[in-house]
Amino acid sequence: MATSYPDEIDSLLRELAASLGAERVPFMDAASAAIAAAGATGVGQAFRIAGPIQKQFFTPPPDARAAGARHNRSSKLIAAEAIGRDDPRCDGRLRRQFQAG
User: Fold this and answer.
1) Which residue of 34, 46, 54, 56 lies most exposed, with the fewest beta carbons within 10 A?
2) Into how many domains does the chain fold?
3) For residue 81, what pLDDT band results from cuts at 50, 70 and 90?
4) C-alpha R_g of the chain
């Protein structure tokens, strides 16, 4: 892959290709060809050209959340009944014993 553009553009392409894994080399070839065809001389122009090309080659990792929640294991806190009074509205007699008058 012979390139005639500055080292900044080459390092930009390496940074963009770092997350692509096996698709790194085809991306570098496609991006280099597109940048050369457009005649881009600056890093900003190269990024605008190479960004959409990177999206074409990027395959996102599998989403672990699609399998469902992993925190639904059994525990003593979930299995046992609640500790304490059922409901504060149930013991009105206790609340009224401290009322004045």
Assistant:
1) 56
2) 1
3) confident
4) 31
